[in-house]
Amino acid sequence: MVPHTNRKNIEFDLLKRYTTLQSIRHLADGGFDSRYSRPSIDFIIMFQDSKYLFKDWFITKDLLDIDNKESEICSQSNNIQNIKLRKPIPSYKQMIKTDTALFYSDLALAYQNFRYNASLVNKSYNFYEYTSYIQNNGYSEVKCHLHKNNVVAIHTNDYSEGYAMIKAIFKHKSSNGSYYLFIYVDWFEDISRKHIKVNCPIFVLRQDTSRCKIFPLTIMDGVRKTHFVHDCNTGCQDNNHDLEHNQYLNNIFFFKAI
Question: 105: which of 19, 46, 199, 228 is 20 to 30 A away, CA to CA?
Fold first, then answer.
């Protein structure tokens, strides 16, 4: 018998999760606990400070809001499979201008990235809030999610690594009748400054056209999510940010727990 191993302590892990879930439940309920006659004043005060933390949380199921035409979406890479699109965006709500020569040119370059060089006849696009897919990294399969307004780090052959915000996720019907998925991004510019209080690098979100803005999912082989927060000013109220102020902080303290 081996007295000590590196096996994970499941009981301790479950206890931590139970404690966390109970704390979240009390916060979401405004500090009310049915075991006591009145709510805890400490939880009530804490709830006021943390309510915005829980405001945008949601739970999804694999079959929720999936586009009925998902079976038609083709992968541009053998490493990416089972692509799902969720929450279609009505055409009157999406702000990307698709009828410009620049959009069409960037889309043609995106097709060329996975060696599709046919002429693009169809100019109809369908936009979505987010997508999920299975990525095979050679030794395991990982389910990945991309949401509109996620910030990602992208490395392409034409440019060194840079940060970009996903402004749109859309599918397009190619000349051969197959649907392909693309992302539309706005790039961040490093202005070589740091925030005076938290010492995080400051970036400016640009909407210029000096870099390509449309990429296929094949770029996901060289992409990773990163964490940016808006550098709020007096024009920001609660979760309503003043987007005219386009400075963001690269949260260097963010890490993904494994």
Answer: 228
